[in-house]
């Protein structure tokens, strides 16, 4: 029986680490691409490489492209912006060129992006909800995602699925520990107005949705039902509309804390400049394509997600 092989870029990162465990448990072979030298696997089904030309064979059934430096680390200087672009755009271009050169055509390539694609609400009303057809904006967080996604469109021979991720919540990793720290110390409650969208997804639903999309590709790209939404773009976010204030309230209740300090938006604007948009603004986003394809979330509400992660 054929054991499918997944090529995973960014395999040593936050999401990649969780994904590898699930793929191995589901009897996939995994080739992990990582910049870290000397990685050794204890599993015969996991092979680490630092460069694509180190891959021992061309039998690749799926590719999951998660490469890219963290957008939240380091102030957005012009140098930092260029690093963020190159870590996504250049790595993705090299990956697709490798596949074209070796004539490798996986069942699908799941390529990462983010809900930053949809930009911000300049008027800060947050009444619009973005599905996968919503337009991007001419601001850095959106342009970063646009440039990342545009690379994949230069290779129409591949069956690429773009996944626009929200904030990924997981125990002991990602951004959640940093978000919880001021609440654990009974300090920060509301940031700015507190009404700004908090667009999130539980790590288990990230992994489950990616495996769901891989299974869909096995059906020869057939859709479960006709849809007006681009079948190659998926918002990986929970279906519940949440705000920053709601996150703080639910987390505080779960941690039995009573943070009292509301931090004005101007503090973050002074400290972070343009980067403060990540904290103070954004757009409401819905997983329209996933829901239309029949995907069922294990953690559809923030309360359920935080109860699981903070229990």
How would a textbook summarize the main sheet?
Answer: 7 strands, parallel
Q: Cα-atom Rg, whole angstroms?
A: 20 Å
Strand order across the largest sheet: 3-2-1-4-5-7-12
Low-confidence stretches: none
> What is the structural class?
alpha/beta
Count of discrete domains: 1
* Shape assignment: globular
The tally of beta strands, per DSSP, is 14
Report the CATH architecture: 3-Layer(aba) Sandwich
CATH superfamily: NAD(P)-binding Rossmann-like Domain
What percent of residues adopt helix (DSSP H or I)? 25-40%
Mean pLDDT: 94
Classify the beta-strand content into a percent band. 15-25%
User: Looking at CATH, which topology would you report?
Assistant: Rossmann fold
CATH class term? Alpha Beta
How many helices?
Answer: 10
Task: State the order of secondary-structure elements, H for helix, E for strand.
Answer: EHEEEHEEHEEEHEEHEHEHHEHH
Taking the alpha carbons of the first and last residues, their distance comes to 40 Å
List keywords for this structure.
three-stranded mixed β-sheet; seven-stranded parallel β-sheet; TIGR01777 family protein; Epimerase_deHydtase; Rossmann fold; 10 helices; DUF1731; 311 residues; alpha/beta; NAD(P)-bd_dom_sf
Describe the model.
- This protein has one domain: NAD(P)-binding Rossmann-like Domain (Rossmann fold, 3-Layer(aba) Sandwich), CATH 3.40.50.720.
- It contains ten helices and 14 strands.
- The chain has helices at 14-25, 78-101, 140-153, 176-184, 203-218, 244-255, 265-272, 277-280, 288-292, 302-310, and strands spanning 5-9, 29-33, 46-49, 62-65, 108-114, 129-130, 160-165, 167-170, 173-174, 188-191, 200-202, 233-236, 261-263, 284-285.
- α2 (78-101) runs parallel beside α3 and α6 packs parallel to α10.
- It is globular and about 55 Å long.
């Amino acid at each position: 029986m054929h054991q499918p092989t997944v090529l995973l870029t960014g395999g040593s990162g936050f999401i990649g680490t969780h994904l590898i465990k699930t793929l191995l448990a589901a009897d996939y072979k995994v080739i992990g691409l990582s910049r870290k030298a000397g990685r050794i696997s204890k599993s015969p089904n996991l092979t680490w490489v630092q460069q694509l030309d180190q891959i021992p064979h061309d039998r690749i059934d799926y590719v999951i492209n998660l490469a890219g430096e963290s957008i939240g680390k380091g102030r957005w200087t012009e140098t930092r912006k260029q690093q963020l672009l190159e870590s996504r755009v250049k790595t993705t271009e090299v990956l697709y060129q490798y596949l074209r050169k070796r004539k490798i055509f996986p069942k699908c390539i799941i390529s990462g992006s983010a809900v930053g694609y949809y930009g911000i609400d300049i008027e800060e009303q947050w009444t619009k909800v973005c599905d996968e057809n919503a337009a991007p904006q001419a601001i850095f967080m959106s342009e970063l995602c646009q440039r990342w996604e545009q690379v994949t469109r230069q290779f129409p021979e591949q069956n690429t699925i773009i996944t626009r991720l929200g904030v990924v919540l997981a125990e002991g990793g990602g951004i959640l520990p940093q978000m919880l720290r001021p609440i654990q110390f009974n300090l920060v409650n509301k940031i700015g107005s507190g009404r700004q969208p908090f667009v999130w997804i539980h790590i288990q639903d990230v992994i489950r949705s990616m495996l769901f999309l891989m299974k869909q590709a096995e059906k020869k790209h057939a859709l479960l039902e006709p849809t007006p939404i681009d079948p190659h773009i998926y918002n990986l976010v929970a279906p519940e509309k949440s705000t920053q204030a709601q996150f703080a309230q639910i987390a505080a209740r779960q941690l039995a804390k009573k943070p009292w300090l509301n931090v004005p938006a101007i503090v973050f604007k002074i400290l972070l400049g343009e980067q403060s948009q990540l904290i103070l603004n954004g757009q409401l986003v819905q997983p329209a394509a996933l829901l239309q394809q029949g995907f069922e979330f294990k953690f559809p509400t923030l309360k359920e997600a935080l109860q699981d992660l903070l229990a």
